[in-house]
Design a protein that fits this description.
The complex is a heterodimer. Chain A contains no helices and 10 strands. By secondary structure, chain A is mainly β. Chain A has one domain: Jelly Rolls, CATH 2.60.120. In chain A, the strands form 2 sheets. In chain A, strands 1, 2, 4, 7, 8 and 10 form a 6-stranded antiparallel sheet that branches. In chain A, strands 3-9-5-6 form a 4-stranded antiparallel sheet, with no helix packed on it. By secondary structure, chain B is mainly β. In chain B, the strands form 3 sheets. Chain B has a 3-stranded antiparallel sheet with strand order 1-7-4, with no helix packed on it. A two-stranded antiparallel sheet of chain B has the order 2-3. The longest helix of chain B has 7 residues. The relative contact order of chain B is 0.25. The chains are: A mainly beta, B mainly beta. Chains A and B meet through strand 2, strand 3 and strand 9 of A and strand 3, strand 4 and strand 6 of B.
Chain lengths: 137, 100
């Protein structure tokens, strides 16, 4: 008995006109700065996206005096999904987050990668990256 | 494709670019202003209405499909087509004055 006709089955999502729409921003030796949206991704019409992997990292290059709260955030639809905050004021201190969320973005949804540092002096390296595969709805 | 674009400020997004998809290029903020703007951003606490920030720009990477293939400039029809039905990006003038 035949349960389905393979020739009419809908392709799986990764075969529906896929596009690697990865976004990210790397900055080295960055001085304190107000909240800055380093990268944004908006899902086009009639498309969806799947966030396959995320990598966020902060490394202190030079100490601050006094230190603030350097942060990297990833938000989707204006809600914070991941937040990394460096609390130690020690040169070469690194914190990182690697994550495979498999979060499905719907048409018109927005993903933002933001950094901020309200310290006085000192510098940091930032790495922000969201791997996104876009495909037909 | 890399473009130089205007940098704006909002409470939600902080310093950002008014485009649906972009990636800022490190070290590309201009003009650098002593005690206000450095190459990677605006110092914390600086008033977004400060006249020194009125012409703030940075380089961004955008989708090639946002550009007019003939001129290489941002194309409003292309952005509106890609984001058809979007409340912000399918509006007349949605990318007006963004590119510098």
């Amino acid at each position: 008995m035949r349960l389905g006709n393979p020739s009419t089955q809908r392709p799986v999502y990764y075969d529906r006109a896929p596009l690697a729409a990865t976004v990210g921003a790397d900055s080295i030796n960055v001085a304190p700065h107000g909240l800055t949206t380093r990268a944004t991704y908006t899902v086009p019409a009639a498309r969806k996206g799947i966030v396959t992997n995320v990598y966020l990292q902060i490394t202190r290059q030079t100490v601050a005096a006094p230190k603030g709260r350097p942060r990297v955030t990833l938000s989707i639809a204006a809600f914070t999904q991941a937040l990394l905050e460096l609390t130690e004021n020690v040169a070469d201190k690194t914190i990182a987050l690697a994550w495979t969320p498999q979060y499905v973005l719907l048409p018109a949804q927005v993903l933002n990668l933001q950094t901020s540092d309200d310290s006085t002096g000192g510098t940091l390296d930032y790495e922000t990256y969201a791997g996104i595969m876009e495909f037909d709805v | 494709m890399r473009l130089r674009v205007r940098v704006n400020y909002s409470e939600l997004l902080g310093w950002h670019v008014d485009l649906p998809t972009y990636q800022m290029v490190a070290g590309s903020f201009k003009p650098v202003v002593f005690r206000k703007v450095h190459a990677d951003g605006v110092l914390p606490g600086v008033d977004p209405r400060d006249p020194d920030l009125a012409s703030l720009t940075c380089l961004v990477e955008v989708r090639d499909s946002y550009l007019d293939p003939d001129t290489g400039k941002l194309s409003e029809p292309a952005v509106r087509r890609i984001h058809k039905g979007h409340p912000v990006w399918d509006q007349e003038g949605c990318v007006k004055d963004v590119q510098r």
